[in-house]
Amino acid sequence: MAKQHASILASGQVYTETCMTFMKSEIRKSNSHRVDSFDRSNHTFMVHETVVPKEGRLIGHFSVNLPNKWCNCGKYQAKHMPCSHVIATCSSIKYDYWSLISDVYKVETVLKVYSEAFQPIPNEGYWPQYEGVKVCHNRLMRRVKKCRPKTKRIRTEMNTTDRVPRKFELC
């Protein structure tokens, strides 16, 4: 196992295969996007798709905020890797989008996780008996069933002579 780790690090591979596959796909998609800048000083941009995506949705317009690591499509926030809209934005301002990938996708980080020894899981016979989640009710949340609920309707008294609602008595 140690030889395999050393060979991966020696090959110069920085990111995992999963990350590289995702990035290649997103780079290919980003070539069909048009970027308009909203506020270049705050790095907020509007990205327009020019080709119908294969994801089953319509052509869209997405806003990208680079300092907040945010895009309307949600992929950037969910995967912690730049989506095609972020890649198109970075390409338009000559910014390195590889720097936006989270460290969890680096080979070095993955190898550090698996370099430690894990404790073996004992036989199921030694596990404590599982009795499920214990649920207790809250007595304060209980509804009073003694009488009908009070009405919340606002009623006003009507004067029969002038048909004007009277809320206050006149002196």
UniProtKB/TrEMBL annotation:
Which InterPro entries has this protein been placed in?
Znf_SWIM
**What keywords tag this UniProt record?**
Metal-binding, Zinc, Zinc-finger
Any one Gene Ontology molecular-function term assigned to this protein's record: zinc ion binding
Which organism does this sequence originate in? Cicer arietinum
What positions does the domain SWIM-type occupy?
62-94
Q: Which Pfam families match?
A: SWIM (PF04434)
In its keyword annotation, does this UniProt entry include Zinc?
yes
Q: What is this protein called?
A: Uncharacterized protein LOC105852490
User: Do you know which PROSITE patterns this protein is assigned to?
Assistant: ZF_SWIM (PS50966)
